[in-house]
Design a protein that fits this description.
2 domains; 19 helices; globular
């Protein structure tokens, strides 16, 4: 009797909440946005153009996730009634398995909401997976008729300030940063499926040699690789370069969403130190002598079969953008001159031939040479790869000034 009363009260409350959302959800969102609009924009990390729909979508997500929790509880109750007379000693095991399945289904549903990813990040530092999906979902909701994404490695993140671009161009053009540290050509191809969901009209990428010439890495395999990618990866010969443990991590995460979200959940529960420990250990091991580090890092750049594999994947990413009628703006970037001087010039020449070929093959590609971008000196860098905040502001302001012309070039090509 108590269980039936609980279900009745829960269903009535949930139905009442859904009815209230349908009838007054917009009004509630207006009230909340009117009082906390500036705070919500700040929490949106520069990706909220209008706080009213932002609040309304979060209300709907909260109700949807609460509904799934109630269905989860009801499923356990129904399962208990079915097995009570048939299973005497292992009901706990059955419920445990069923609960694990339901938890993964709930995580899968939750991972398609900005509410979940926002909750994973507030107060817990920066986590790439959380940042990527949070911003992607907000971009999907953005009502702007023209939307752009910044893609690529941490260099794109360091070079371009999306908030500054949105302040300068946000009246009819909105930008979101969907970058991921360590991204190479094949990583971008894996991420294209996620990017496609946001349906951007423009893709902007800061391109350097690291996308093609430093050997295979595992930046996105554990988070984006799925079973559907196996045939294509096999056809490309990618399994000769991928590390097996990262492939299995991606496939296991495709089966179990809880496994794929394990890092953000651990960070939310135990704080950012649990996730950033390896990075802190790596940072502490770096030499303070930039010249010595530059010589060491430069040795990792070389022409090989891996670079051909990464370039082909990058080209296929561009081709998919062209098929979707997206304009691709490639900003030819570089590194701290201390490092750039140590890299074999033949590598830069090979990259430029490849990028020039892309421009000639794909009409929606706009290539901006490094000489047309703001000059960057060693004093503009925090390390060998990433510029400082002052250079980021200057670079972003320059990009905001030139973007209207670059966008018109894409329209002319179309």
């Amino acid at each position: 009797m108590r269980r039936h009363r609980f279900y009745l009260i829960a269903v009535v409350c949930l139905l009442t909440s859904w009815a209230g959302y349908v009838l007054a959800g917009r009004l509630v969102a207006q009230v909340v946005a009117g009082r906390f609009g500036s705070v919500l924009i700040r929490l949106g990390q520069g990706n909220v153009s209008n706080p009213i729909p932002f609040v309304q979508h979060r209300l709907r997500e909260a109700l949807w996730l609460a509904t799934l929790v109630l269905l989860w509880i009801a499923a356990h109750g129904l399962l208990d009634r079915l097995i009570r007379a048939r299973i005497k000693y292992s009901r706990g095991v059955v419920h445990g398995v069923a609960g694990f399945v339901c938890l993964n289904l709930w995580i899968y549903a939750a991972s398609n909401t900005a509410l979940f990813w926002g909750a994973m990040g507030i107060g817990a530092g920066i986590q790439l997976q959380m940042q990527f999906h949070f911003k992607r979902i907000l971009l999907e909701e953005n009502p702007m008729s023209r939307r752009a994404i910044l893609v690529g490695s941490s260099q794109t993140r360091a070079q371009i300030n999306e908030e500054l671009l949105n302040q300068r161009l946000g009246t009819n053009f909105w930008t979101a940063k969907l970058t991921y540290a360590g991204v190479q050509g094949y990583d971008l191809l894996l991420m294209e499926r996620q990017i496609r969901r946001a349906n951007p009209q423009v893709v902007i990428c800061y391109v350097t040699e690291g996308y093609f010439y430093i050997g295979p890495t595992s930046a996105t395999l554990p988070y984006f690789f799925q079973f559907r990618d196996v045939p294509d990866g096999w056809r490309r010969g990618g399994f000769r370069y991928f590390l097996g443990k990262y492939i299995f991590a991606g496939l296991f995460g495709d089966l179990l969403p809880l496994f794929r979200c394990r890092e953000v959940l651990a960070q939310r529960l135990f704080g950012p130190a649990i996730i950033n420990l390896k990075q802190l250990q790596y940072d502490s091991s770096l030499q303070s002598d930039l010249e010595a580090r530059a010589r060491e890092n430069a040795a990792a750049f070389h022409l090989s079969g891996v670079s051909d594999f990464e370039k082909q994947a990058f080209e296929d990413f561009v081709a998919r953008c062209q098929q979707a009628n997206r304009q691709v703006i490639l900003l030819v970037g570089g590194y701290n001159p201390i490092l750039a001087r140590q890299i074999d010039p033949a590598i830069r020449a090979d990259m430029m031939r490849f990028l020039d070929r892309l421009k000639s093959r794909y009409s929606r590609v706009v290539l901006v040479p490094q000489g047309d971008l703001p000059e960057q000196t060693p004093a503009d860098y925090e390390d060998l790869t990433h510029v400082n905040r002052d250079m980021q502001r200057r670079f972003s302001a320059d990009l905001a000034d030139r973007l209207p012309k670059l966008l018109s070039q894409g329209q002319d090509a179309r």
